[in-house]
């Protein structure tokens, strides 16, 4: 359950980063930890959601989000990747379990306790959002019957 919460937090990170408001001040402790974890970033925007401080930034021409708790602990880092960048075990699991589904080319890569990937896909009857661990283990987050 904790892992699912982490993934959902990561999704919120990206959605909230898309609608970023003006940057806010965060504690010196969190800023110091961020600077240790990430260097050479651009377009840094800070937000707070619940008990998290969320940094949205660009590094090496890629957009990232990172969430920190109030003690400055890095909780999760997420970024968009393309379907072609998925590990072989993930691709194999998708092909085996979701053979009739078409998945979006945009995938959210979530790095917390382990790396996992959040994908959305559909077939004629269903629309799904799933989390696939790097090992290939799949968890269904949402499954909706199409009208």
Q: What characteristics describe this protein?
A:
147 residues, alpha+beta, Nuclear Transport Factor 2, Chain: A, 2 domains, 9-stranded antiparallel β-sheet, 9 strands, elongated
Description of the molecule:
With 147 residues, this protein is of the alpha+beta class. The chain folds into two domains: 2-76, Nuclear Transport Factor 2, Chain: A, CATH 3.10.450; 81-145. The chain has helices at 2-18, 28-37, 88-97, and strands at 42-49, 52-59, 62-68, 74-82, 102-103, 106-111, 115-122, 126-133, 138-145. Strands 1, 2, 3, 4, 5, 6, 7, 8 and 9 form a nine-stranded antiparallel beta sheet that branches. β3 (62-68) and β4 form a beta hairpin. The longest helix has 17 residues, at 2-18. The chain is elongated, with a radius of gyration of 16 Å.
Please state the average pLDDT score: 87
Q: Total domains, how many?
A: 2
Portion of residues in helices?
25-40%
- For the record, the CATH architecture of the largest domain stands as Roll
CA-atom Rg in angstroms: 16 Å
Count of β-strands: 9
Strand content: 35-45%
Parts with pLDDT < 50 across at least 5 consecutive residues: none
Stated plainly, the CATH topology of the largest domain is called Nuclear Transport Factor 2, Chain: A
Number of helical segments?
3
Largest sheet: 9 strands, antiparallel
One letter per element, helices H and strands E, the order comes to HHEEEEHEEEEE
Shape: elongated
Alpha-carbon distance between the two ends: 30 Å
Q: Provide the CATH top-level class of the largest domain.
A: Alpha Beta
Q: What kind of oligomer do you see?
A: single chain
The helix-and-strand class reads alpha+beta
């Amino acid at each position: 359950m904790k892992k699912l919460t982490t993934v959902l937090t990561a999704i919120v990170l990206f959605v909230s980063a898309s609608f970023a408001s003006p940057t806010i001040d965060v504690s010196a402790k969190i800023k110091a930890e961020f600077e240790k974890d990430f260097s050479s970033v651009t377009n840094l925007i800070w937000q707070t959601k619940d008990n998290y401080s969320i940094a949205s930034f660009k590094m090496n021409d890629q957009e990232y989000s990172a969430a920190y708790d109030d003690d400055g602990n890095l909780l999760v880092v997420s970024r968009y990747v393309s379907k072609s960048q998925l590990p072989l075990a993930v691709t194999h699991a998708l092909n085996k379990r979701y053979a009739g589904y078409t998945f979006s080319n945009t995938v959210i890569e979530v790095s917390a306790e382990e790396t996992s990937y959040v994908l959305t896909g559909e077939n004629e009857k269903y629309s799904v959002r799933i989390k696939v661990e790097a090992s290939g283990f799949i968890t269904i987050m949402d499954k909706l019957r199409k009208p």
